[in-house]
Write a structure and sequence with these properties.
Blueprint (H helix, E strand, L loop, with lengths): L1 H13 L11 H26 L4 H18 L2 H17 L3 H17 L3 H18 L2 H17 L3 H18 L2 H17 L3 H18 L2 H17 L3 H18 L2 H17 L3 H18 L2 H17 L3 H18 L2 H42 L4 H57 L1 H14 L6 H33 L7 E4 H18 L3 E6 L5 E4 L1 H18 L5 E9 L2 E8 L6 H4 L23 H11 L3 E6 L5 E8 L5
Parallel strand pairs: 2-4
Antiparallel strand pairs: 1-3, 4-5, 5-7, 6-7
C-alpha cells in the first residue's frame, strides 16, 4: 500500500497520474514507444552523419552521442571503440570538456565489461582534468563514477565518500540529470547496508526529479528500486508487481543490461516465495541477455542467484556447478593483478593531491612574506596596526593548517610505503623459513648417503640404490627452489610464460615416470591411463611440467602408504585435460575457501612425514591461468581428490 501511495503522490507532482502501480497507462506506453522510435531513428541518423566525413569538431559531438546510445543498447565493445576515437579527436583539438566526457564514458563502459581497474584509471584521469578546469558537473560526474566503481570492489567506505562528494557538487551545480544518477547510487548503497528508510528517501528524491521530466527509463529505475525495498521488507507481491512493470519498460526500450538484471531480481523474489520453476525460467532469460552483453559483473550476480535457487530446490549438483562458475568469474574480476593496478592508481592520485597541497603551502608562505613586508613598510596608527596583526595571525593560522595537512598526507604516504616494505619483508622471511626447514632434511639425507658411498665395503647394487636415493633428494630440493623462485615472480608480477606447441599427453606420461620411484617407496599404485594421444596445446613446456609435477607430488604426499594414484589424459569439447585422482583425505569446505592461497594451512597432512611448503596449488593455479587454462578441484572429506588441468586444444588444421 505504501508503494502505491508513493507513486500516486509522485505522479500528481508531475501532472500525469498513472493510477494504480500495477497498471501502466496509455501516456506512459506512448512515451516508451516514442522513446524506442526516437532512439533507433537517432542512432541511424548519427551513424549516417559520421559516414559523411564531418569536421573534427562536429565528429566529436556525434561520437559522444553515439557512445551513449551504444552503451544504452548494450553494445559495450562497440561503444568503447567509439568513445576512444572521440577521446583522440578531443585531445587533438584541445577540447578538455569533451575529453572529460569521453573519459567518463570509457570508464563506464569498462565498468559494464567488468574491467574495474581500467574503469578506475579512466575516472581518476577524468577527475584530475575536471578539477583543473573547475566544472562542477564534470567533477560531480567523476566522483559518482568512482563511487560505484569502488563499491563494486567492496571498498564501501571509499564508495560512500565519493558518492557524497558527487552529491554535494551536483547540488551546487543544480544539475538535475546528475542528481538523479547520484541519488539512485546513494539509494543502492543504503539498500545493501539494509538501511531501508534511508534508501527509500534517496529513491523518492530521484523519482520526484525524473518523473517531472517524464523519463520512461527513470520510471523503470524507480519501480526497480522500490521493488528491491519491498523484497527486503518481505512484501513479495509488491516486489513482483514493481519489478514486472520495470521489466516491461526495459524490454520495450531494448535495454539489455537492465532486462538481464531485472529477470535475475524477479528470480530472487520467486525463489524466496518457493516458486522455483518460474525462477529458473527468469534466470535462463537473464543468462540469454547477459551472454549478448559479454558483461562479467552482470553474469556474476546471475550465477550466484542460480546457485541459490538450485540449493533451494535441493539440486546440489547444479548448485555446485554454478557456485564454481561464480567463484571462477569472481576470481577473474578480483585478481591480485587487478588489485595491484588499483593500488597503484590510488597511490598516483594521492601523490597528485599531495603535490597540489605542497603548491598551496608554498603560496601560503609567499603570502606570509608579503604580509610581513607590508607591515614593516607601513607606519599606521594603532587601529591599522591591530588590523595588520589580525591579518597576519589569520595568515599564520592558514599556513599552519596547510602545513599540518601536508604533514598528515606525507605521513600517510610514508605509512603506505612502510606497509608495502613490511609485506615484502614478511614474504622474504616466510620463504627463508620454508627454505631453512624444507631443504634441511634432503641435505642431511644427501650427506648421509654420500658418507655411505664413501665406504669401500659397499657392493655395486648398494651404491646404485644409494645413488638413486640421492637423485630423489636432489630432485626434491630442485622442486623446492623452483617453487620459491616462481612464488616470488608471481608476487612481484614478473612471471614470464612462453607459448609453444606441446603434446600434453606426452608431458603427463613423462611426469608420471619421473615420480614412479617415489610412489614405489611408499608402496603406492601409480597408474597412467591414456585416453587420447597427441593432445596438442599451445603452452609453456617447462611451466606445464612444473604444474603436473606439483599436483602429482601432492597426490603422492597426501595419499596413504599402499594407496593409489591415477593419471588420465583426454579431451572434452575444445579442451585438453590431465586428470589426477588420489586416495588421500580430500578437502574440507574450509579448505576450498583458501585452496589456491600461498602458504595456506589445509586440513590434510603428509602421510609419511614429507615436507609441504604450501605453494604447490597456488603456483599451479597461477601458471595454468596465465596460459588461458583452468585448474579444477573435486573432493569430499575422506574420499580422495580429483585435480583437473584444462588447456584449450591447439588448432590442428
Amino acid at each position: 500500500m505504501r508503494n502505491h501511495l508513493i507513486l500516486v503522490f509522485i505522479l500528481l507532482l508531475s501532472g500525469a497520474a498513472y493510477g494504480q502501480v500495477n497498471n501502466i497507462d496509455f501516456t506512459l506506453n506512448q512515451r516508451i514507444q516514442n522513446s524506442v522510435l526516437d532512439t533507433e531513428s537517432d542512432y541511424n541518423i548519427q551513424k549516417s552523419k559520421l559516414d559523411q566525413n564531418p569536421s573534427p569538431k562536429e565528429a566529436v559531438k556525434i561520437l559522444l552521442h553515439l557512445a551513449d546510445m551504444q552503451r544504452w543498447r548494450g553494445d559495450y565493445a562497440e561503444g568503447l571503440e567509439t568513445a576512444r576515437k572521440g577521446l583522440k579527436y578531443a585531445r587533438d583539438l584541445s577540447l578538455t570538456t569533451y575529453e572529460c566526457e569521453f573519459l567518463y564514458r570509457i570508464g563506464r563502459l569498462f565498468w559494464n565489461l567488468g574491467d574495474y581497474p581500467h574503469s578506475l584509471e579512466s575516472h581518476l584521469e577524468e577527475l584530475r582534468l575536471a578539477e583543473k578546469i573547475g566544472q562542477l558537473h564534470l567533477i560531480a560526474q567523476s566522483h559518482f563514477a568512482l563511487g560505484i566503481t569502488y563499491y563494486r570492489y567492496g571498498q564501501n567506505d571509499n564508495a560512500f565518500q565519493q558518492l557524497k562528494l558527487a552529491y554535494d557538487f551536483a547540488v551546487k551545480d543544480n544539475n538535475k540529470e546528475d542528481l538523479i544518477l547520484i541519488l539512485n547510487g546513494l539509494g543502492n548503497y543504503y539498500l545493501t547496508e539494509k538501511n531501508y528508510k534511508k534508501s527509500e528517501e534517496y529513491y523518492l528524491q530521484s523519482l520526484r526529479l525524473h518523473s517531472s521530466d517524464g523519463l520512461a527509463s527513470g520510471t523503470a529505475d524507480s519501480l526497480t528500486n522500490l521493488g528491491l525495498i519491498a523484497l527486503a521488507e518481505g512484501e513479495y507481491d509488491k516486489a513482483l508487481s514493481n519489478l514486472n512493470q520495470a521489466l516491461d519498460i526495459y524490454t520495450r526500450l531494448k535495454y539489455k543490461r537492465y532486462i538481464a538484471n531485472t529477470h535475475r531480481r524477479i528470480a530472487t523474489v520467486l525463489r524466496t516465495t518457493g516458486r522455483l520453476h518460474e525462477a529458473y525460467e527468469h534466470l535462463d532469460k537473464a543468462i540469454e541477455y547477459a551472454s549478448e552483453l559479454k558483461s562479467p559483473d552482470v553474469m556474476l550476480d546471475i550465477y550466484a542467484e542460480y546457485s541459490a535457487s538450485a540449493e533451494k530446490s535441493s539440486d546440489f549438483k547444479l548448485a555446485l556447478a554454478y557456485e564454481k562458475k561464480y567463484s571462477a568469474l569472481k576470481e577473474q574480476l578480483r585478481s591480485d593483478h587487478n588489485r595491484e593496478i588499483i593500488a597503484g592508481l590510488e597511490s598516483q592520485y594521492k601523490f597528485d593531491q599531495q603535490q597540489l597541497q605542497i603548491k598551496i603551502l608554498k603560496s601560503a608562505d609567499q603570502l606570509k612574506l608579503v604580509e610581513i613586508g607590508r607591515r614593516r613598510s607601513q607606519n599606521l596608527a594603532l587601529l591599522a596596526g591591530l588590523s595588520v596583526v589580525i591579518i597576519i595571525t589569520g595568515a599564520i593560522i592558514l599556513i599552519q593548517r596547510y602545513r599540518l595537512k601536508a604533514e598528515r598526507q606525507t605521513l600517510a604516504v610514508n605509512k603506505e610505503a612502510r606497509i608495502r616494505a613490511e609485506s615484502a619483508e614478511k614474504l622474504k622471511t616466510k620463504l627463508f623459513e620454508i627454505a631453512s626447514h624444507d631443504l634441511k632434511v634432503p641435505l642431511r639425507s644427501l650427506y648421509a648417503t654420500a658418507d655411505l658411498i664413501a665406504d669401500s665395503k659397499l657392493d655395486y647394487i648398494d651404491i646404485k640404490r644409494l645413488a638413486e636415493n640421492m637423485r630423489v633428494d636432489t630432485l626434491h630440493m630442485r622442486s623446492l627452489v623452483e617453487a620459491f623462485l616462481t612464488a616470488v615472480a608471481i608476487e612481484n608480477g614478473n612471471l614470464q610464460v612462453k607459448s609453444e606447441r606441446i603434446d600434453l599427453a606426452d608431458l603427463a606420461k613423462n611426469a608420471v615416470e619421473g615420480v614412479r620411484l617415489i610412489a614405489q617407496g611408499k608402496k603406492q599404485n601409480l597408474k597412467y591411463i591414456v585416453s587420447n594421444n597427441n593432445l596438442w596445446v599451445n603452452a609453456d613446456h617447462i611451466r606445464m611440467r612444473q604444474v603436473i609435477d606439483n599436483i602429482l607430488s601432492n597426490a603422492l604426499k597426501f595419499s596413504p602408504i599402499g594407496g593409489s594414484i591415477t593419471v588420465n589424459t583426454g579431451f572434452v569439447d575444445l579442451w585438453a585435460y590431465v586428470e589426477i585422482t588420489d586416495s588421500g583425505p580430500g578437502f574440507t569446505p574450509q579448505d576450498f575457501a583458501k585452496i589456491f592461497q600461498p602458504h595456506a594451512a589445509l586440513s590434510a597432512l603428509p602421510t609419511a612425514g614429507e615436507d609441504s611448503s604450501g605453494l604447490g596449488l597456488f603456483i599451479s593455479h597461477e601458471l595454468v591461468t596465465l596460459q588461458g587454462g583452468r585448474l579444477e578441484v573435486e573432493s569430499q572429506p575422506n574420499s580422495g581428490a580429483v585435480l583437473r588441468v584444462l588447456l584449450p586444444l591447439a588448432n590442428t588444421t
